[in-house]
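Case study 2.
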Amino acid sequence: MDWDKLRIFHAAAEAGSFTHAGELLNLSQSAVSRHIGALEESLDTTLFHRHARGLILTEQGELLYRTVHDVFNKLAMAEIQLAETKERPSGPLRVTTTIGLGSLWLTSRIKEFTDHYREVEVSLLLTDSELDLSMREADIAIRLQEPQQPDLIQRPLMTVHSHVYGAAEYLEAAGTPKQPEDLDRHDLIIYGEGTPTPVPQVNWILQLGMQSGSVRKPVLRVNNIFGIYRACRSGLGLAGLPDYAVPDGTNLRRVLPDTQGPSFRAYFVYPEELRHSKRVAVFRDFLLRKVTEDTF
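Prediction:
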C-alpha cells in the first residue's frame, strides 16, 4: 500500500469529505478522489460509501482506518521522542484538566513555566469530561478522581479540600451562618444537573446540616465550578467551593470554618509511552513545586 495514498485516505476519513480533506492537504477535491480511487483499486475493495452529504466508511474502510490511525499515532509519538533528544524540552504539550482547576488555579500559575521553557508549546484543554489520553486527545491530565485505565502512569499531586464561601456583601446583607443547619435559610449556588461532575458529591452543600423534613432549593445551578465561583463573588449566595478556587484578596469569606466538604486527591496522569518525555517531566516538577508553595 502506498503511504501517500494512506495519508490521503486517513485525512478523508477524518474530514468526512474529499473537499475538506483537500483543504487540509492543500490538494484539489479531484486529486483526493483520484488517490482514493487508486487505493481502492489496488486493494480491490470499496473504502467509502459516497453520499451527497459526505463520506461514510464501509466495513473494510473502518478496518483500514483503525489500522492507519494507530500507525499515524505511533509515528507522531516517534517524532515526539526524537524531538526529546534535544538538550532542552521543546514541542507541543497538551494538558487537560477540569474547568475549575484550570481556570482558577493553573492558568494563573502557568506563566512561570512558559517563561522558563519557551520552546514548549503549551495548550490547555479545560473540560469537566475526561479526554482519552490513550487516544492522544491530550498528553497530560490533572484528574480529580483516581484514573481507572491500567495503561496510564499516575501520581498523587495534591489533596483538595472544600469549604462554604460567601461574598462579604452577601454576608453583610443575609448574615453569617453559625452552624450547618443555618444553611436552610440561605441562598445556595450549586452544580447543575445533567452535566459531567468533576468530582463525586459536588453538591455536598445541599446536604450539609440538613434537618429532617427540610428542603433546600438552590438560587442558581451552574454547570462548572468557575461559574459557581463568579456567581458567589457577585453576592448571589453561598457556595461549596474547593479551596484552590479562592485566592487571597477576593471578597469571598470562608463561613462555617470548622465544617468542610469532602476532600479528594488530584492526580498527575500521562500515558506509558511518554514515560521518558522531558516535557512531561519538567511540567510535572513545575506543578509539584507550585503545589508545595500553596496552602489550601
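The CA atoms of residues 194 and 223 lie 9 Å apart.
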